[in-house]
């Protein structure tokens, strides 16, 4: 829900901070004071088009910031968008900021991160619905009608199951298309794959052999030096073989160890030194043996060096073409073999896929027909409920129907003797139709009414669809246009009735409606230092509310005050008797 909104230099609002709560939040005030400007500010947070005229005269920019609390249901819708756009923040609320500059530029941020208006609008769809003067009316958009009807019908799980089959069918059709797109191109592709596989198989590559060959090439290229340095190392360890040759390091260590053994026999404190000498002698002896073994492997072999160079050149050639390493070349060969097998067996595969496609189209038809029957039955109940609500709202002659149509498509699913177009929602095209006045034909909802009449239609829809509609915050502007006080009380009851599952914000001039407020805000227009600006005052106690309601009734005297008290008593009595009772202000009983 909308918890807080901060507005600066927006239209005639200089600076404003306002906290809203659960239940029915009512905004009242004299005409032109700026009541609807607050709604306009909210729409900016939902991705509305920014106009430089919104920037307060003399200011460089207008700034609007809203804090929206997220319940578990709303989090389920919004969180994937936040994660996708890397906008996730800790906590169960998000902050949306909109900045409009006098030079025509504007920016939007979610949780401090700049986003485009498409993202803002996508998020806003799940946060707030504004009904009245604005164009942000989700219920007027036909693409949302099937979702609302399916929630009302409790079809969302069944629809998800159908959607899974439709997705699998899409995968099958894409594979068929791939196989049929261009047989000649596939044949050319097969010829190329065969040639590539022949080259790779002929090479008989072994994983890791390129590194081994590189090491062998280094040894062969430096065989003379390796042999020389190995011999010199052995000579230093073992000594010269000539009669007058010097004693090697090994013999000297062994002699030193012999002397240390004699010393340790006399002085036990030298035992550790003797052990070290023995260990050093053994290590040097092992080193000498290792060097002799290595010397036996070192050879000058130009022919083998040529073989190694040729093999490495072949490996590098294949690696450049197919992936950079021997392992990558072998992996490519696996993929190429699988693709070639698929091409060579494409006719059998296409036949198999065609059978799967037909089976899925029949299954989709069965599921779609079942869902369509459920929608048709539910639509009659929905229509009757909305007509009843409209009658209470002084639209007794209004008609409402849910239009459910199917479209023929030769590539569609099988429903009896028809082939019907389908998508992940099923086979139906759903649109809400209405006639607001006697003698007028049923027309699409968006073309029927505007202003207060449209707002009342929205209220009726919201009342009937309240369980299906999961938008947490509903805003109604000018909902009382063209109705009197008696109907105003009915509208107040119905708006308050929505607060069991929604936060509701209403801008109104009717005292009878305002009496049902759980939180009441008065909008004032003040002039200071020659500038007009808007002020909003929360009416926190009974006397303030009575005074405001009396002003709305046009009788600011004891008689008006008494009428205002009676309105509050009537509203409080109604709310106490209703099924749910959100927190309310006032102490009237």
Give an overview in words.
The chain is α+β, with helices and mostly antiparallel strands and 589 residues long. Helix content is 53%, strand content 18%. It has helices at residues 35-45, 72-84, 117-124, 142-153, 156-180, 183-203, 209-221, 223-238, 249-266, 271-297, 302-322, 326-344, 346-392, 451-465, 485-497, 511-514, 542-553, 558-577; strands spanning 2-10, 13-19, 24-29, 61-69, 93-101, 106-110, 113-115, 128-131, 399-405, 408-415, 418-420, 429-435, 443-444, 473-477, 503-507, 519-528, 531-538. Strands 2-1-4-5-6-7 form a 6-stranded antiparallel beta sheet. α14 runs parallel beside α15. It is elongated, with a radius of gyration of 42 Å. The model is unreliable at 581-589 (pLDDT under 50).
Query: What is the multimeric organization of the chains shown?
Result: single chain
Our Rg estimate from Cα atoms comes to 42 Å
Spatially, the strands of the biggest sheet line up as 2-1-4-5-6-7
Mean pLDDT: 84
Beta strands, count: 17
Mind summarizing the main beta sheet? 6 strands, antiparallel
Indicate the percent of residues in helices: 40-55%
The helix tally amounts to: 18
Q: Which secondary-structure class do the elements indicate? A: alpha+beta
In what range is the share of β-strand residues?
Answer: 15-25%
Q: Low-confidence runs (pLDDT<50, min 5 residues)?
A: 581-589
User: What is the global morphology?
Assistant: elongated
Give the termini separation: 29 Å
